Amino acid sequence: MSDLFKNSYIAPEKDLVSLSVCNVGCQKCEPLYTWGPGIRNHYLIHYVITGKGYFKVQGKLYELGAGDCFLVYPNQEILYYADQKDPWVYCWIGFSGSDAPSILRATDFSPESPVLFGCPFGDEIQKYFLQIYALRGSAFKNAVAMTGVLYTALALFMRDTGRQKGTYDEYVQKSIEYISSQYSYHITVEEIAQYVGVSRSHLFRAFQNCLGQSPKEYLTAFRLKQACLLLKTSNLSITSIANSVGFDNSLYFSKAFHKVKGMSPTEYQKKHNSASKLLS
User: 278, 269 in Cβ contact below 8 A?
Assistant: First the structure.
């Protein structure tokens, strides 16, 4: 069938911590075109433009048509396939980041109800997904531009929702805002909890509930993400980079970096920094 098409883009390693695009695209499927069974390591929203298809998750099979959406959660086994007589055309966006769980909890999506039937803002969804695809590129500015539109697209799903963000969500979001602005200083979990206005143990429960990690783990991951960006885009020394992202000990920074990336900061800089490659 010559009219079949698939336009897709897979983003490179993400430098953005709060929210970033993993992949985006649009496809006209052949009859019974299938993905799965399998899992994804990120969130994935599909919007059905025309035609019909089926989405299976947690033992339930959903029949979807034009104007419907379905959300795939990370590490959840799923299967979806096109109808045999009227195969669907859909667009999709894959994304991850610390903001994603809080945003999605403020929508009518849930692990128990991952399908939205008859979205009244379908034309806007399609427009934003295609706009993200048009902004694709490996440069950091492309990642920022795509993420900006992604926030706007996700906000559509928050319209008229009957859900309210829980207290844990608010604590985590306020913590993330504080970390984003203060990570370069030697802030501690105690200081984050004090800023949010809760005990350290309460903040720990909030992070575990919303993100599945401790505040300290999130803070370290955030700092290492920022360090990766500096290692890629600057010729600062390892000590300078460690200090710039809030590590007061460059040896501890190197150990933490190696544990996550499997290589030293120096090795990472030589591998990913084009300026360093030119100088070597």
Answer: no
Residue 13: how many other CB atoms lie within 10 Å: 10
Is the pTM higher than 0.85?
Answer: no
Task: Enter the tokens of residue 14.
Answer: 């993400």
Over residues 68-105, the pLDDT tens digits come to 999 999 999 999 999 999 999 999 999 998 888 888 88
How far, in Å, are 103, 147, 175, 265 from residue 153 at the CA level? 11, 10, 24, 35
Q: Among 27, 126, 128, which Cα is nearest to 69's?
A: 126
Q: How many CB atoms lie within 10 A of CB 270?
A: 15
Which residues have CB under 8 Å from 134's CB, separation 6+? none
Residues forming a β-bridge with 256: none
Q: 181-184: long-range contacts at Cβ-Cβ below 8 A with a sequence spacing of 24 or more?
A: 183/219, 183/222, 183/223, 183/226, 183/245, 183/246, 184/226, 184/244, 184/245, 184/246
Question: What are 12-62's pLDDT values in tens digits?
Answer: 766 667 889 999 999 999 999 999 899 999 999 999 999 999 999 999 999
How far are the Cα atoms of 57, 105, 113, 160, 220 from residue 164, in angstroms, in the given order? 25, 8, 17, 11, 29
Q: Angle at CA 23, nearest 5°, toward 212 and 153?
A: 80
Residue with tokens 């460690």, as numbered in its chain = 242
- Supply the pLDDT for residue 106: 82
Partner residues linked to 93 by β-bridges: 24, 45
